[in-house]
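Friendly challenge for the regulars: who can give me the structure tokens for this chain first? No prize, just bragging rights.
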Amino acid sequence: MLNKNESRQRRARKTRARIAEQKTNRLTIHRTNLHIYAQVVSDCGCKILASASSLEAEVRKELANGGNAKAAVVVGKRIAEKAKSAGVTAVAFDRSGYKYHGRVKALADAAREHGLKF
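First reply, four minutes later:
Bragging rights claimed.
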């Protein structure tokens, strides 16, 4: 019997295997109760091209809480801007086994609105 985290990691492995076949950069996210993190990883998986999180000082100034959908929108906007400045416009979205709703959806929608294609 798998626990909740092991089930999520199993789902994430399947997604990452599919993304690896595409040979494209991936936007991967991680969420905790208090914060949300996003990274753009190179197609080989060996280099972080851009990263953003609700822990960054600029983000913390405008947010009281880093673990809600409002924080996810801010992080999505920042990751899109940082990725574009690093020369990345198209990515594959790796939701790390999390359901596509709530904070995960808010981050993805904000990144799309600010010019990241996936």
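The chain has a mean pLDDT of 96. DSSP finds four helices and four strands in the chain. Your move, everyone else.
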